[in-house]
Amino acid sequence: MKWNEIREKYPNKFVLLKALKSHVNGNKKIVDEVALVKIIQNPKEANEILIRSKGDTFVFHTSKDELSLTIVQNHVYRGINNYENSI
Questions:
Q1: CA separation for the pair 21, 34 (Å, rounded)
Q2: In terms of domain of life, where is this protein from (predicted)?
Q3: Which of 4, 63, 77, 84 lies 20 to 30 Å (CA to CA) from residue 42?
């Protein structure tokens, strides 16, 4: 299903989606096709579901024009643990 179809059917709603087709442009993941998993009525519930979301499943609000996610890369640094040295 395309994002504009979901926006038309469910205006001003939080929705739980699964990305089916996407591409990366710089630091953005642009989602081209999605499967609608659930319509979420309560913003608090939407936040709780978002926190538990994994992989290609995520919560989004239909007020947004573009369905894109910012890619955040966590860098892992290896080195000396400062806490151990202060004991």
A1: 7
A2: Bacteria
A3: 4
Burial group, residue 13, by CB count within 10 angstroms (0-12, 13-18, 19+): middle
Confidence of residue 76 (pLDDT cuts 50, 70, 90): confident
Cα separation, 37 vs 82, in Å, equals 45
Report domain extents, the chain.
3-85
pLDDT (tens digit per residue) in 13-38? 999 999 999 999 999 999 999 999 99
In angstroms, what CA-CA distances link 37 with 31, 55, 64? 15, 14, 18
Q: What tens digit of pLDDT does each residue of 33-75 get?
A: 999 999 999 999 999 999 999 989 999 999 999 999 888 887 7
Instruction: Give dist(CA 2, CA 36) in Å, integer.
Output: 10
